[in-house]
Amino acid sequence: MVVDDSQVICRQIEAVLSKQDFDVVSTAADGVLALRDFRMLKPDLVTMDLTMPRLDGIQTIKQMMIIHPGVRILVVSAVKDKATALRALRLGAYGFLCKPFTRFELAEAVDVLISDLGKT
Amino acid sequence: MRITIKKYYGLIAATVLLLVCTLGLVASRGAFEPSIVLRGYAPLAVFLIVIALVALIAQLLTHTLRVEASLASNNAEINHILASANEGLFLINKDFEIGRQKSARVKEIFGDGVDVSGNFFHLLHHVSPQTEIKLAREYVELLMAGRVKQQLMRDINPMQEVPIEVTQPNGGTVQKFLHIDFTRDESEHIDPKQPRALVSITDITREIQLRGELEQTKEQQQERLDLLLSVVNVNADELDAFFNETKENLVEINSVLAQEGAEHQDNVEKLASIATMVHRLKGDASALGLDFFESAFDHFEESVSLVKRNMYIDGRDMMALTVQLKEIINEVEMVKTITPQLRSVGTSQLKAVETEISSIPDRLLQVAQRAAENAGKHVDLSCTGFEVLADRPELARKMDAMAIQLVRNAVVHGIEAPVDRLDQNKSPLAMIRVNLAKEEARYKMSVLDDGRGLDFDRIRAKVAAQLGMDEKQAEKLDRGKLLHYIFQPGFTSLDEATVDGGRGVGLSLVRDEANNLGGRIAVKSSPGKYCQFAVTIPLAKES
């Protein structure tokens, strides 16, 4: 599942994940839409932007960890505010990828993220 | 290194077997009479046991020696690594206690006076008080906890550029920058409850210096390029007018500065009039998009306001300003001289932008967005009605200049930071509406922003502070009086000046200009909702 308010970023991430044999079950432009789909779909992996309209990444991660604590969340954001990024990780995200990123960096980050799991 | 007993199993088993046999023989002696054959074997068995024991001891001894030699060689290697590593290296445990082994660079990095031991964050706080220890600690805790992938945390390491003061042997201090990296020890034998991390510290002072120099060079080049481009882009007549006015003003400022034998009070008054002139020049430069001069005047304005804060202003202070002013005059002269040449080259590639009335809305939007960018705010601007001044180009120029001051004032003072706006359920994108209308006997220009409105408490506090009033006196100031003060030169509600505002000149300029044109300025505001400045100018004047 890809959560980002930029359609360009969503498409980029989707392309990389598809190449790595992931099914992108949903893309959402804000936290509210993300949680709606997340409840139904319970995805294994989520890439999450932090600054989004309506419900920001931090609040969304909090909710997701309650709904499905097993989810692996990769925060994908620009590091303007390290404290917020760190907070996202403390809340349960597994890693952080800095925007802007290359396809290679994203693919590598996803590999690391699921390195101790059987790939689904 | 652990001693493995496995390879001695054979020897130990043989020895134990022989021992058991011998003991059996000895024990059974009283029960029956052993045959001569068996009796003859007893000394042989004892002999074999002794041999086996000796062999066992010899083997163990050789092994111990080998282990010791290997340990010694490992230690030598570790010492070599620690002595020659380019980074400061040491381990910290889960309580952030620094380990005993450290690379030689550690001492070099922190200097002789610093004891690198005990709690790592106490050390960090000691050498770099400005580093946010809480954040740094949270980062290391998260890394030690092991859940988050450490490869995917490095970007948010808050210790990538840690400034420290290092005391030198001669007693002086020098500033250094360190990059402190952490790697969780993931070896198998580490108890997850007792995690530890390798701390590696790199001195990046040189990189930081180079980066700074590079950025500065880039900025200077960019400024020059922008200046040349902006000059070509400005309408020739307006540019000439700007150069002439600027030159006149600067010469005037220079003559004010050069008057001799002035006392403190005279200097204070001189500086106030200089500040107003420079602020006007800055506004003109900004209106023409001449960023280079805008920032030059801004620096000069900053210097003037710094001198104004002095307890006693003497000739030397004024002299320093004169030197700075000379540089600006030289720049203006230089650009003025090369402009005709530039223009002849430029016209073939760059079409000069006509600064007609139709371009006022775009320019105001640019001014607003530039000021917003500097202040980290978001703003949109709509501007209507300037076409009613199509037959009054001189007045249009003056109205435009006033609108620029009011728009900058709105961005800097009126509009809140995007986060604050979100907190109040407002759109992070603020709105400024500039409207000019021809009414019966007057022109009315209004500049409306949907920001915080006038904060009378803050204005009261500032007025009181600037006039040296106590709280009781300040409370007596009613809104009418306070409004009077916001148009006074030198009043500002900002604590810190920026290129766009905070020196308390903008509103007084607008009021003066309105008065010169026979008009007036009024303000309306609602806390948290809006603030509107309205300038009204009678039609009669000038026509």
What does this structure look like?
The complex is a heterodimer of chains A (120) and B (543). Chain A has helices at 7-19, 31-41, 57-67, 82-91, 103-113; strands spanning 2-3, 27-28, 45-48, 72-77, 95-98. Chain A is of the alpha/beta class and 120 residues long. Chain A has a single domain (2-108), classed as Rossmann fold (3-Layer(aba) Sandwich), CATH 3.40.50. A five-stranded parallel β-sheet of chain A has the order 2-1-3-4-5, sandwiched between helices. In chain A, α4 (82-91) links the parallel β4 and β5. The model of chain A has no long low-confidence stretch (mean pLDDT 89). Chain B folds into four domains: 6-82; 86-203, 2-Layer Sandwich (Beta-Lactamase), CATH 3.30.450; 212-355, HPT domain (Four Helix Bundle (Hemerythrin (Met), subunit A), Up-down Bundle); 358-538, Heat Shock Protein 90 (2-Layer Sandwich). Chain B contains 17 helices and ten strands. In chain B, a hairpin with a 5-residue loop joins β3 and β4 (173-184). The longest helix of chain B has 49 residues, at 36-84. Chain B is elongated. Mean pLDDT of chain B is 83; it is low at 348-355. The A-B interface holds A 74, 79, 82-83, 85-86, 89-90, 93-98, 109, 112-113, 115 and B 132, 135, 138-139, 142, 147-149, 151-153, 155-158.
